[in-house]
Fold:
Amino acid sequence: MTQEQINANNGNYSAENIQVLEGLEAVRKRPAMYIGDISTKGLHHLVYEVVDNSIDEALAGYCDHIEVTINEDNSITVQDNGRGIPVDFHEKEQKSALEVVMTVLHAGGKFDKGSYKVSGGLHGVGVSCVNALSSHMTTQVFRNGKIYQQEYEIGHPLYPVKEIGTANITGTRQQFWPDATIFTETVYNYDVLATRMRELAYLNAGIKITLTDMRVDAEGNTRQEVFFSEEGLKEFVRYIDSSRVHLINDVIYINTEKQGTPVEVAILYNTSYSENVHSYVNNINTIEGGTHLAGFRRALTRTLKKYAEDNKMLEKAKVEISGDDFREGLTAVISIKVAEPQFEGQTKTKLGNNEVMGAVDQAVGEALSNYLEEHPKEAKLIVDKVILAAQARVAARKARESVQRKSPMSGGGMPGKLADCSSKDAEECELFLVEGDSAGGSAKQGRDRKFQAILPLRGKILNVEKVMWHKTFESDEVNNIIQALGVRFGVDGTDSKEANIDKLRYKKVIIMTDADVDGSHIDTLIMTFFFRYVPQIIQNGLLYIATPPLYLCTKGKVKEYCWTEQQRQRFIDTYGGGSENAVHTQRYKGLGEMNPEQLWETTMNPENRMLKQVCLENAAEADYVFSMLMGEDVGPRRDFIEKNATYANIDA
Structure:
């Protein structure tokens, strides 16, 4: 956007730009419809909604510093140095424009294209929703040399907008207290907010975001981080790839505009065996991809293949190259800005704008073609990697065919260790992946045979992060999981690496391991497999981790299972008078120590059990964590363990 456009828009951003679409009544009645849920995810979403408003000011060219503070009382303050929400009189609503923005759902400058060319805020539900779900909220606007203020309780203003002083700055300051009668969790997690603020800083080069936690820790300290990226996506892709070995040191960077769509892409090749492409639209993480991702893949395949063919680099390979091969070892971030994004898909995070595909295709094709011509050494390394990937893909197909030929049933059959359920309705069926034959035996006896299937796993499964594609299909344990699920790769005569879950046999996949270090390691190995090979199961919310109890506490005839140390202490205080010796505590070291009835009662019975759903909130951060935990580089993994070890409850 030019400075002339900015100046012109600045003059037009007033009450008449605030358009009202509908009221706010339903938000408190059905909060999950607006913010996803009412637990930790929804709680943090409130912060993102307010910060998005400040980011939109930055996208329009008016803001370069955003301060986010977790206050001592667990309220949140967000302040920016943008223009400040308009406070003049709104003719249609007959009240201040500030009050309209804060109390009417889907009211704001985002709907007026003269105020904001692009906006991430439209994907969300707006600051009025945050207001409705807060027990109290205070808004201060620094504008026209004055400070304006209005306060609210559960979305209702306590008084008209008023002047409370003078100011030599501009911007908006929002403070809100999440409503404890709405949310099941009201304590903010600093690390969750830091992850999103870091992501926003990478996606918006030149914007400084300061995150401060005023809550004092055990050592009496507060926390603060400043997130700022001068190079934006170039730094982002290096951060994601920091635990991997680079194939080429260059970041292939594209920043242009095609067909009216700003396109920014950063590409890096590494020596790993997975594809890691993260796409964003107006700062929104489109974890299901969409037309911008399709355009990127199309351009990458076409351009690399043409370069390799023109330079006769594929003649000796004697293997057919497919689109998947060009993306092995690829890490990329795609960020585009669209004036009116159309979202679709399971989680409304899949872009549907058809015009975007051609724009991204053209931008990536031109830039990548130029890079390959100017960097022949790096181009050869990439093409050699592509050929290796194609050879591995063919080997993987042969490995799969070999497994299927060994099976007594056509199509691969079921693993011999699988104790299947009687129901054939995938919607009600669930598969337990159980650590060890001993625990598997207890689970088989204790389960409900109608809808619960058990697949025992022998020890730790293959670490798929460290092996080539075809090696995964040579692992018996991994193949057992794939066959039991009914997942297919390379269907319809192709060698595609994309999993097909159309015939998925269970709509709950539950990892059940011992509550110790080895159990946690097995959890991570299995999650790595799903994240790299069958991410749709995580994206659709079908993967869970069982939580067996740590203790069985007994006092006389009173027995109680305890999942945490706090629950155990509560039992001791209640029934043992605070004396640990007065209570018998059995510590479960493993699932095998429970008899089938206990395992059913505590961990498998849908009426009593607690399952942790594995969610993909931030694909780029998950990509970084999996590569760091399960990859070759020891240094970052050691740092992560040292930083987080204090939070782990591990027996000596």
